[in-house]
Specification:
single chain, about 10% helix, elongated, disordered N terminus, disordered C terminus
Length: about 350
């Protein structure tokens, strides 16, 4: 459980598993630009992290379109990785969009986001911070994590633990749950996750179609992830974010011996809010709850996957096509899965 919560912590803080210090920002310097400019600059810089979480929480809900028999169940552990596209590695900084922060040279530049390349100070533009038109400080623009230099992919991870239970008439109830878990022994923060999903066999209601050799279901899922991380617990400073994700899809699957090929098509949306809470003091001002950001995603979601089943053990993976394409891998156990819709005999014990 400690490893699981630490992965969520990494996701919440948007830090690199290879080098935590790369993700640390000088919030005081950002706040010198004033609240409006600080929020705008951080919103662009952090966008791929929070957008990636939004896409990730809507993945990994199922690995077949066939519900369980009544009181059958499965328990799965999955990791969803929302891959940051090339367009999410940089954002455009225009002087005209800001009041108190400007480029030292030029009027526009491409700056790395949090999930952009890890550049040295010599490769980054310099930003000038102004107060009533007078320059107060100069700093290098923030650099990215450079995850693609140390990991196989530039992606935002979202791990999940999920239980599925067969109800009646071809309906499964799926539950994602992590209680409010404390991160560390000195009030470092907490993480809490809850999700609920329903999958229903619609093939049984369709004449002619109910005779065809595949499974067909509808699925609806909702996930809520809340994380609070201490910036400085002694000063009661915390970073908090919450992600709400919703997905509705039509599912289809085909089982052949030990293999199940499955896919889904539908709509997914998410909203993530981020706040930097507490009192923060700079050389010139003091701010209460200075940062409040919001990110929303929504659009068509299509995915394909493959499951290998050995007795009660499942190993599966899928790929979702959306703005941030998402790869999912998982393992689990399943008992009392529904009867096969094909004419191919099922493996004994499944």
């Amino acid at each position: 459980m400690k490893i699981y919560t630490r992965i969520l912590l990494i996701t919440g803080l948007m830090v690199s598993m290879a080098n935590v210090s790369k993700a640390q920002l000088d919030f005081d310097s950002f706040l010198e630009a004033g609240l409006a400019d600080a929020n705008k600059l951080l919103e662009a810089y952090m966008a791929p992290a929070f957008k990636g979480i939004g896409y990730g929480v809507n993945a990994g809900w199922y690995n077949t379109a066939r519900p369980h028999k009544t009181l059958g169940f499965d328990l799965n552990i999955t990791v969803n990785a929302a891959m940051v596209p090339a367009s999410g590695e940089f954002f455009t900084f225009n002087n005209a969009d800001y009041t108190n922060v400007k480029l030292s040279n030029g009027t526009s530049a491409q700056l790395p986001t949090l999930f952009g390349p890890n550049l040295g100070a010599d490769d980054l533009p310099e930003l000038r911070f102004l107060d009533n038109g007078e320059e107060t400080i100069r700093i290098s623009a923030p650099t990215g994590l450079g995850l693609d230099e140390v990991l196989p992919m530039n992606a935002v991870p979202s791990p999940m633990i999920q239980l599925g239970i067969g109800l009646i008439k071809g309906t499964d109830l799926k539950i994602r749950y992590t209680p409010d878990i404390s991160l560390g022994e000195e009030d470092e923060g907490s993480v809490k996750l809850f999700g609920i999903g329903v999958m229903h066999d619609i093939k049984q209601h369709l004449p002619v179609v109910n005779k065809l050799p595949f499974d067909l279901s509808m699925f609806f899922g909702y996930t809520n992830l809340k994380t609070s991380i201490a910036v400085d617990s002694d000063l009661n400073q915390f970073a908090e974010f919450e992600t709400k994700g919703t997905v509705i899809q039509a599912l289809i699957s085909k089982k052949i011996a030990l293999l199940t090929v499955y896919g889904g098509l539908g709509y997914a949306k998410s909203k993530t809010t981020f706040g930097l809470n507490g009192v923060y003091t700079t050389e010139n001002s003091s701010y209460t709850d200075p940062i409040n950001l919001a990110y929303e995603n929504g659009g068509l979601k299509a995915n394909v996957g493959l499951r290998i089943r050995l007795l009660f053990f499942n190993l599966f993976g899928e790929y979702s096509f959306q703005e941030y394409n998402t790869a999912t891998v998982g393992i689990g156990f399943s008992f009392r899965e529904g009867a096969s819709s094909t004419n191919i005999p099922m493996v004994p014990g499944i």
